[in-house]
Every structure is written in C-alpha cells, then in structure tokens.
Amino acid sequence: ILNVEQSPQSLHVQEGDSTNFTCSFPSSNFYALHWYRWETAKSPEALFVMTLNGDEKKKGRISATLNTKEGYSYLYIKGSQPEDSATYLCAFESNTGKLIFGQGTTLQVKP
Amino acid sequence: DSGVTQTPKHLITATGQRVTLRCSPRSGDLSVYWYQQSLDQGLQFLIQYYNGEERAKGNILERFSAQQFPDLHSELNLSSLELGDSALYFCASSEGDSNYGYTFGSGTRLTVV
Hints:
The structure holds 2 protein chains of 2 kinds.
Chain A: E1 5-7, E2 10-14, E3 19-24, E4 30-38, E5 45-50, E6 56-59, E7 62-67, E8 72-77, E9 86-94, E10 99-101, E11 105-110
Parallel strand pairs in A: 2-11
Antiparallel strand pairs in A: 1-3, 3-8, 4-5, 4-9, 6-7, 7-8, 9-10, 9-11
Chain B: E1 5-7, E2 10-13, E3 19-24, E4 31-37, E5 43-50, E6 53-57, E7 64-68, E8 74-78, E9 87-94, E10 103-104, E11 108-112
Parallel strand pairs in B: 2-11
Antiparallel strand pairs in B: 1-3, 3-8, 4-5, 4-9, 5-6, 7-8, 9-10, 9-11
C-alpha cells in the first residue's frame, strides 16, 4: 500500500508569515513528486513536479525541495498572502504510473 | 478553463442505477486519469489510460469501469450505485509523462439517493 502523509493537516498564519509543509512518501518505486494547489470550488492546479533527489523548484514566493532517499519533500511559502489560502496537495508518482495523493495541508492566511 | 472538460457537472441518481461520466482531455494530452473524492477523503486514484490502453489501476471497484476512446476522450461507468458512491469524480490529463503535472477538470459531483 502506497502511503503519502502530509503535515500539518491545517495551518492558520498571519499575512506576511512564512510557512512550510511536509510531505512524506515511499522511498521505493519513486518516479516523481508533485505539488498541487487546490482552492475551494476549483480544481487542483499543478505547482511543481520534481524527479531528482535534491531538486529544488521555485515559483514566485513558493518553493519546494525533494529528498528521495529519505522520502520527504517540503513546500515553503515566503511572506504568505490571503490569496495563498488553499489546500496544498502532494502526490507520489510511482514508476508504475500511479499518482497517489496525500490528504493535503489546508492553509488559511489571515489579513 | 483548464482545457479538461468533464460532463455532467452534477448528477443525482437513485441507488441501483448506472451512470456514465465523460471526460475530454486537454488538447494533445494522451493520458487520462480518474480520481474519486468522497466526503472527508482525499483524492483516491481509480484508473489511468494512455492512448486508449489501460496503464495503471487503483482501488477501483468491480462495479466501476472505464475506457478511453480513439479520440482520447474517456468515460467512467458506475453501476449498481450505492449511497457510498456519492462523491466528486475528477478527471485529469497529461501529455504522457508528467513533467508538467496533471491538468484537472472541474469534476462531476455525483449524488446517489
């Protein structure tokens, strides 16, 4: 059974705070690690796809790192804004093509 | 608009019935994936098709089946529906490999009464 765990489950921060979430995943049969942003009443949108150990990706104030040997990835948001409020999903893609999602971290940024 | 089209957006049906959910992938994408999101559950992987052929299978019930047609659209068939099948069903597509992630449709909300 492929298990993808995300923590924390939810997070409330003030505007301007920086924050980070954790995703842990199996270290075997790894192909890629995805991060998605899911706003209420919308569909998940891809943020990053990382494949190599040590990968770091950045998009504006959001960045992510990957450690495939120990099976974890971090997502960082610098200077959170209210529009960053969403659920952030990570997903483990196995080398058999399955993409297994974690339960997500729900971020609420208060103005 | 993500480019992935799912129809219908909403569906209400009775227990024991059969429904078909339809997905048209983003232009150029060969892979289609189906996910189920039940109340308080995350996205559960059901099945993946690539260029018409089944590629990977998740925890898809035997009452559920899917296929991808030559024009690359896909259908998810749900039969002998139970109350517990009520969920949001998402379709996603990708080029083939997933270097840019998956593109999700807006989902079909199925309510079984």
